[in-house]
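Hi, here's the filled form for the chain we discussed.

Project: internal
Contact: R.S.
Residues: 146
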Amino acid sequence: MVKHDFNVTTHWIGGRESVGKLNGDILSEQISIPEGLGGNGTGTNPDELLVSAASSCYIISLAAVLERSNFESIEIEQSSVGTAIFENAKFKMDTITHYPIITVKSTQKEQLSKKLDKLLELADKNCMISNSIRGNVNIKIQPKIK
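And the returned structure, exactly as it came back:
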């Protein structure tokens, strides 16, 4: 078993309207409650960070899967949407949908079309964030080949 620790520190003073600080090895951001949820919307927030983690993990996993499948000139442009719901008196992330637009060498587009569903599933299974939230958050992938 391989084990790796990811270290993050957070600091907060005050109540709901305050702004906190998040620091990781690379990441350094202000955090607050999103404006749409009654906060002041300064910096980022846990919900955006969750969707960002899922999106960045999935795109990296997808690129690795495509490379291992011998696709060349790989380029992926992806947007991801996290949909939160208020249910049973609490908020939760219900669904994260990834919209990857995949570009590969023009002579490989047909080959990619044939293998795409399998490769998308493999990338999802290789993504640590997908594996961590699966069962609690629905993960959907809506790809396009460019």
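Let me know if anything looks off before we file it.
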